[in-house]
Design a protein that fits this description.
Layout (H helix, E strand, L loop, with lengths): L13 H18 L8 H11 L11 E5 L11 E5 H9 L2 H16 L3 H18 L11 H14 L7 H9 L3 H18 L6
Antiparallel strand pairs: 1-2
Helix pairs in contact: 6-8, 7-8
Amino acid sequence: MEFRALPPRLHMNEESKCYRKFSNKRVNAKKEKIEFKLTFEEWKKLLIEAKISYNDIGIKGYHLARFNDSGPYEVGNCRFVYYLDNLKEKKFSQKSKEASTKNITTYNKSTSKEERQRTIQKFKETWSKKREHYKPHNILSREDVIKKYELITSLVDLNRRGAISKAAKLLNCSHTCIRRYINRYNKLQKVGGSNPST
């Protein structure tokens, strides 16, 4: 059975608004591939047990949380908790522990302190090579700004429409990054005369 979120309606009664919250939770659980076995009546009973109304449910309100962040949403395995309590539970859940483990597997495989230092250094080097063009424009030297600008102008004609987008794609960086280099170059040009490369 396909569950879909309800479309927005201007004039809804209290029961409909309450059902909308239930429906949204059911759809979100399906997106996360978590089994949802609660009926609307059971969901309302959980609200009454928590002594809250459907208006208290939200991002910074109450969440329907499972015990130990595992198993399906069903009677006996879930209850409404304040969002901060839910976040604390998620931190210690098996799912988040597995994600953290994947991130440090390479680091933990290394046997000696020197090997771990080499792993960290290798990561830093490859990262800096990949992100070289992301170096903040305001800490670049005058020569670096000129080189970046010349690189951009050698790839695209800045007077043409879509030049910044094209340059961003070619250099694998953001539009903002390209604009900042151009603006920095223009500022240097105003301060240093007509040609900042001299």
